[in-house]
Design a protein that fits this description.
By secondary structure, this protein is mainly α. It is about 65% helix and about 0% strand. The protein contains seven helices and no strands. The protein is elongated, with a radius of gyration of 14 Å. The chain starts with 9 loop residues before the first helix and ends with a helix.
């Protein structure tokens, strides 16, 4: 399932398929020789176009908490977001929420 033989359109589909097979994002990244952030991006795209429910990727209550605390997260640098939340949310959660919020804004 290496990426060198797949198109840019097929790569996100393969990542989604593996995620739906209950593989962890870290395992998908290792298997596909991608960074975890790339797999997250593939899955965020799937949430954005309705192929994956938000709840499968992030707890909706956590997402709502981040959106309420940092409504302008997509426009912030990650260092600014981390400082603003004063450690209330993990870097990974902020990065994922930021991507999801940007996706919903489009």
């Amino acid at each position: 399932v290496k990426s060198d033989k797949l198109s840019a359109q097929q790569n996100p589909q393969v990542s989604l398929f593996l995620f739906q097979q209950r593989k962890f994002i870290a395992d998908i990244a290792k298997l596909r020789d991608f960074a975890e952030t790339t797999i997250h991006a593939h899955l965020v795209r799937a949430v954005g176009d309705g192929r994956l429910a938000l709840e499968k990727l992030m707890d909706p209550n956590l997402f709502a908490s981040i959106r309420q605390a940092l409504p302008h997260l997509p426009t912030l640098k990650m260092s600014e977001a981390i400082d603003a939340c004063q450690g209330s949310f993990s870097y990974a959660d902020l990065l994922l929420a930021r991507s999801l919020m940007a996706q919903h804004a489009e």
